[in-house]
Amino acid sequence: MTKPTRLDYCQYLLTTRVNYTLTHYADHCERFSHDQINRYLAGDRLPPRLVWESVQPHLVQTPDGYIIFDDTILDKRHAQDIAFAQKQYSGNAHTTINGIGVVTCVYVNPELDRYWIIDFRIYDKQGDGKSKLDHVQDMLDVLVNSRHVAFSTVLMDSWYASKVLMLFIESLGKKFYCPLKRNRLVDDSNGTKPYQHIDSLEWSQTEQKSGKRVKINKFPKNHKVKVFRVVSNKRTDYVATNDLNQSDVSAVRQVCSARWKIEQFHRETKQLTGIEKCQCRLPRIVRNHITCAVLVWIYLMQKANEMGQTLYRVKNEPYSDFLRQQLKSPTLKMDIA
């Protein structure tokens, strides 16, 4: 009897458009029953390491590469008793929702303007005792000390701008750029004045262009970072970096703009791979589904680069052919109007 494989399940996620359930798969597959597919997903182990093994041959590294960390919430507001789902803040929903937290790591080659997912972790503090910051530190350690990935700079948002993580990045000999929350306490007076919220600092015209050195509260004595006031049409960010030679706010804005790549990855996986559409409850099935969804994104990105098209075009092209055929010779022919 033929049994489902990882490739079979990934092919299903790649092919289906709206319904990503195992029931839908079994209803449209002559080879496998629902129980067979369920047993496969519950019995196999597909760790995040498979993502690295899949993407490594296609990864174009550069010593000036960026590593970007962020997390995304897989929306489970309408589900019950699904493994890893818990109440947590979703930036997409702008509120606390029931969902699965996935911490992602994206590699950006700024010279080619291309990006690749290279690692991820599922947030399960009750199960493994690790915070999202712990997961980021673990992934960084693997990238530098085990996989020897070439990069110079780590980008992350204000949720990850902790003292421990920033100092850890420095200990690896890497630079970081991350916005600080507006109420973060800093000192720009060399200890002559009390710490104040970063959004209360005064900025000279020179400092607005070239940044200023500050000490962040609770950082080691005499440890300074450089902060830039980056103003856009809708917001003002206070971006901290340990690159004390940086002196151009425009360059800082350009570097930070690369963080959009990881948001793009999150959007594409949700819209094209069904990463948050799995309705199974068992932890192993949830883990395997997420890994397979990320593998599908890797395939779509590879094909998009080969064909010079978007991931959306690659995913939807077979259905465009179907639509053309149906318009030419419809299965259901409209006869009233």
Beta-strand residue fraction: 15-25%
Helix content: 25-40%
Mean pLDDT: 95
- Order of SSEs: HHHHEEEEHHEHEEEHEEEHHHH
Shape: elongated
Unreliable spans are none
Report the strand count.
Answer: 11
Radius of gyration: 23 Å
Distance between the termini: 50 Å
Main sheet, how many strands, which sense, barrel? 11 strands, mixed
Number of helices, where a helix is a run of at least 4 consecutive DSSP H or I residues: 12
Question: What structural class is derived from the secondary structure elements?
Answer: alpha+beta
Explained architecture:
The chain has 337 residues and is α+β, with helices and mostly antiparallel strands. The chain has a domain at 157-258. α7 (163-171) links the parallel β5 and β6. The longest helix is centred in the last third of the chain and has 25 residues, at 283-307. Helices cover 39% and strands 21% of the residues. It starts with 5 loop residues before the first helix and ends in a 9-residue tail after the last helix. It contains 12 helices and 11 strands. α3 packs across α11 and α10 crosses α11. The model has no long low-confidence stretch (mean pLDDT 95). Strands 1, 2, 3, 4, 5, 6, 7, 8, 9, 10 and 11 form an 11-stranded mixed β-sheet that branches. The radius of gyration is 23 Å and the shape is elongated.
Question: What's the helix and strand layout?
Answer:
Blueprint: H1 6-15, H2 22-27, H3 34-43, H4 49-55, E1 66-75, E2 85-90, E3 95-109, E4 114-122, H5 125-128, H6 132-145, E5 153-155, H7 163-171, E6 175-180, E7 185-187, E8 196-197, H8 205-210, E9 212-216, E10 225-231, E11 236-241, H9 249-257, H10 260-272, H11 283-307, H12 311-328
Parallel strand pairs: 1-5, 5-6
Antiparallel strand pairs: 1-3, 2-3, 3-4, 6-11, 7-8, 7-9, 9-10, 10-11
Helix pairs in contact: 1-11, 3-11, 4-11, 10-11, 11-12
